[in-house]
Protein 1
Amino acid sequence: MALISCRDLKLGYENSIIVDGLNFSVNSNDYLCIVGENGSGKSTLMKTILHLMPALGGSIEYGDGLKATEIGYLPQQTQVQRDFPASVYEIVLSGRQSYLKNRFFYSKEDKKNALFNMERMGIAALKDRCYRELSGGQQQRVLLARALCATVKMLVLDEPTAGLDPLVTVELYELIKRLNKESKIAIIMVSHDIGASVKYASHILHISDKCVFATRDEYVKSYKANVSNEEEASDKGEEL
Amino acid sequence: MSEMFDKLILYFQYPFVRYAFIVGVLIALSSSLLGVTLVLKRFSFIGDGLSHVAFGAIAIASVLKLSNNMLLVFPITIVSAILLLRTGQNAKIKGDAAVAMISVGALAIGYLLMNVFSTSSNLSGDVCTTLFGSTSILTLSKTDVILCAILSAIVLFAFIFFYNRIFAVTFDENFAKAVGTKADLYNLMIAVIIAVIIVLAMNLVGSLLISALVIFPALSAMRVFKSFRSVTICSAVSSVICAALGILISILMGTPVGSTIVAIDIIVFFIFFMIDLIRSR
C-alpha cells in the first residue's frame, strides 16, 4: 500500500484549473522530486497534499498508517520568521504540536524527541541560540528538525535549498538523502534544480501541460531522447 | 524624599487611587502579553484601529443612554477585531488599508454622534478624556475594578494555557495548519483577546494611546532578549513596572496618567535600544 496515492487529481483556485488528471503515488522509501516551470502548480500540489487547500477534483488517499497531519513540512521561509525572536529549541519543539492533542503543554517525551531531532540534524549545540541570528543553512536545519518532530514517515520540502550557497546546498541534499536511506523516510521535494533532482530522486513528477510521472531512470531516458530529438531537429535546421 | 512618600501614603488612603493602581497594573500586564504576537504578525496598528472602533461604540452607547456602555462596546469591538484579522488573509481591501479605513471612520462617526446628540455641557472635555484617558482612571468604581480584574485574569490564563499554540501559529501558520493545528480558531481567539484588552485599556490610557501600551513593551524586550519565552516575560515585567511608575508619577506630579505611562514606556525602549547597541559592538 502506498503512503499517498493521487487519482485524477484536479488542482487550482476557485475558477482556474492549473493541473488536471494527475496520477501518481508515493511509497515508503521513495524520494519524489516535483519539478516544473514557475506557476505550473508545484506549490499548489504540495499545499493540496498537506490539506492547506482543497483539491478541485479526484482523490488523495493516505495509506500505510499515514495520517495527513503526520507529514513533516518544510515550508519556504516567510518575512515574519526572519526577525522572529525565538530560540532554536522553541522552534524545533513546536514541531510536536500535533502530539499536544488536548493537552496544553509539551510532555517530557515531546522534549526528548525535539532534542533527539536536533542532534540528528547536527544543531544540538545551537539549542539556545536565536533563530534570526543563524546562517541560512543552519536555519534550514532547524526547520528540518522541526519537520522531523512531526513525522516518522514522510517529509514534504518546498525548495529547501533556495537562497543557500552551493556548498551548503550539497550538505543539505546529502542530509536529506541520509534521512531517506537510513531513516526510511519518504521524501517529496518541490525543486527548481533539475540537476540535483535527477541525482538524488528515485521518482520524478514533471508538472506542465502534460504531466509526467516516472522513475528517475525512465525520466532521464525520455529527457535524453527529447534532447537528442531536439538536437537532431536543430541539426537538420542548420543543414537546410 | 520623605515628603513624596508622605504624599503617596496620603493618596493611597483613598480607595479610588488604590483601584486605579490595581487596574492599571492588571491592564498593563495583559496588554503586553499579546504585543509580541501582534508586532510579529505585522498587526501593530490593529490596537489603534480597534480603539477607535471602541471610541465610536462608546459614542453610540452614550447617545442611546445605555446604563452600562460596556454591553455595547465589547461586542462591537470584538466583531471588528475578528473582521480585521480575517481581512489580513484574503480580502479586496488589504490589511493596513482596512485598519486605517475602519479606525478613521469609527473615530469620525463617534465624534459626530457625540457632537450632534451631546447632553453634556463639557463636550471637548468628554472627548479628550475618551481619547487620552486623562483622569478617568481615578473615577473608577468598585464594579469596574472587579470587571477589569476578572477579564485580565481570563486573558492571562488563556495566554498561559494556549502559549504553545499561540507561538506555533505566530511563527508559522502554514506549518501549524499542515500538522493539524486549528490555526483559524487560534487566530480568532487572539482577535477576541485583543479586543477585550483594548476595551480594558481604554480606561487607563484612552483610545489614542493604547497601541503604545501593546507594542512598546514587546519592542523593548525584542531588542535584548532572544527567545520567545524570555521576550514575553520581559515585556510583561517591563510593562507592569512602567505602568506602576507612570501612575505613581502622575499622582505625585498631577500629570495625565495615560501619557505619563507611555512616556516611561518610550524611555524604557531607548534604554533597551542602547543596551542592544552597546552589546552588538
Protein 2
Amino acid sequence: MAGTRIPPGVFVAALAVVAVAAPLAMPTPFYVDIMIRVALFSFIGVAWNLLGGYAKQLSLGHAAFFGLGAYTSTILEVNYGVSPWIGMLAGGVVAAAASLPIGAMCFRLRGPYFAISTIATAQVLMLLFLKFRGLAWGAEGTTIPNLGDAPLMMQFAAKAAYYYVALALLAVALVVTWLIERSWMGYYLVALGEDEDAAEAVGVNVPRIKRHVFAISAFLTGLAGTFYIQYIYFIDPNTAFSFNISVEAALVSIVGGIGTLWGPVLGTALLEVTSALLQSWLGAGLGGVQLTIYALILMAVILLRPTGLIGLLTDARDRLFGGGKRTKEVVFDG
Amino acid sequence: MADALVVRDLSKRFGGLLAVQSFSFSVAENETMALIGPNGAGKTTSFHLITGYHRPDPGSSVVAFGRELVGLKPHDICAFGLARTFQVARPFGHMTVLANVMTGAFLRGRKLEAARERAREAIAFVGLEARAHTPARDLTTIDQRRLEMARALATEPRLLMFDEVMAGLNPSEIDQAVALIGKLSGRGLTIIIIEHVMRAIMAVASRIVVLDHGQKIAEGEPKEVMSDPDVIRAYLGSGYAAKPAAGEAPC
C-alpha cells in the first residue's frame, strides 16, 4: 500500500489519543458498551485477517478458538481460582495448540471446502461442551462469580476499564500484524494466498507457514474469548462457540478491506455501530428491520467496493490529493 | 564435466495412462538442454515429477548434484537449487513485480533490505526495472514470463527449468528471451528448457531430448535430432517421414 501524505506515525498517534479519550465523551454506558464491542470485534477481525486476509484461507470456524480461550480461563477461574489474566494466556495457548490438529485436518482442503471444514470443527467443539456435562457445566453453562471491583480478577466497576482492556488487546494484534506485514512472513502469506503451487516453486514451505499463522491467529482469538466471557459474566457452549463469532470475524475484515492492517477495524466500526444503533432506535418492535438494513449495508459495500472501506478511503485520498492512479484492489509492494 | 541432473527410469502412471515411461536422461553442469515433443508427450509431467509436484512411480530416481530428490517437497527441491517456471505463467497477481521477486529472494535470507537488493538485481537481469512497482497481473505476457524468470533466479538456483517460456512471444521477444537464456548460461547455470520454438532451441540448446507418448525417442545434437525420421514422424505424422530435410521446424 502507498503511504499516506500524513506521516503514518502521526496518524496512529492521533488515532490512539482519540481512542483513549473517547469513553470520557460518551453520554451513557450504552455508548461505552458499543465501543467495547467495536474494540473486541476489531481485535477478533485483525486476528482472523492474518489467516483469512493475508493468506486467503477463509476460516469460518474461529469460534472454535474463541470458545476454547473462554472455557480455559473460566474453568481455571471457577474451579481453581486462577486469575483470568493468567487464564487468558493459558486460553490463548490452548487455542494455538488446538489449531495444530484442526489445521492438519482442514488445510488438506482448499477454497470453499476449507471454509466448510472449519465450520464443522467449531460445531463439533460446541457439541462436545454441550453433551459432556463433566467437561464444563454442559448446556446450562455457568456464571462468573461477581467480585465487584477486582482488577486482578479482570472485573471492573467502571465500564470504561473493559474498554481499555479490549483496546490494549486490539493494539497488540495490530502491532503483531504490522510486524508480520513488514517481514518475510507477510510476503510468504500473500504469496501463498495468491498461488500455493507457485509459492512452493520459490521455496515457500506452504504447510508450515499456514500452521504458524493459524496458531498466531488462534492464540489471539483465544484471548478475545476470555475477555468476552469476563465482560458478560456468563458462559455456555452456545455463547462461547457461537457461529456468529466466526461470521463476524470474517465479515468485518471483508467489509473493511481484506488483507490490510486497518481493514478489520474500519469494518467493525461501521458494522457494529450501525447494528447497535439500529437496534436501539428501531428496537425489536419492527421485527427484523434492523437486520435488513444491516444486510443492505453489507451488500452495498461488497458490490460497490470489493476492496472494502479501505479501498474507498484510499480512492478518496487519491482523488483529493491527486495521488497515484486509482487502484481497484489492494496491492502488496516491496 | 560432472552431471547436474541424472534421471533414471522416471515413470508416472495416471490411472490407465502411462504419462511418462522409464524416461532416463542426464544433464551436465552448465549445459543447456532442450526437452521437446508433441503436445501430451509428458514433458511438463516430467518437470512436475522432477520438481516434486507429482510423486514418481516406484523405481524412479532423480539425482541432482549427487542427491536423490524423489520424495522431497517442491520447496525443499527449490531450496536445494532447482528452480522452475510454469507453462502458464503464475505470478502473484496482487503483488508488485518487486514483491514477487522478493518472495523468491527470502529463500536465501530473511532480512528485508538484503532481499530487496537481491530482488532488484534479478529484476535488472531480466530487464524489468521499469515495471518494479507494477502489480504483476497488469504485466504483458512477455513481462510475466520475465517476472517468473526473475522470481526463479532470486532463489539463487544452480539448475533452472523453463517450461515453454517463449510460447506466444513475437519474433523480437523470442530473440530477447534467447539472449537472456544465453546470459544465464554464461553465469554458469545449468538449464533445461521445454520449448516448441525451434529457432530458439537451435540457438540455445547444445543437446535435445525428444519425448513422445511418455518415452524418449531421440537424443543428441540439435541438427542430428531434427533430421531423425522418428522425430519427424512424431511431430508431423508418418506421411512426412520420407522427406529428408527438417531444418525448418515443426511448431
